[in-house]
Amino acid sequence: MTTYLVPLILIGGLTSTGVYLLLERTLTRMLLGLLLIGNAVNLLILNVGGPSGNPPVYGRTSNGAQTDADPLAQGMILTAIVIAMGVAAFVLALAYRSYQLTTVEEVSNDPEDTRVAERADEDVVDRDIPDVVPSRDTDAPDELDALPGAEGSR
Question: How confident is the model at residue 9 (pLDDT cuts 50, 70, 90)?
Answer without folding.
Answer: very high
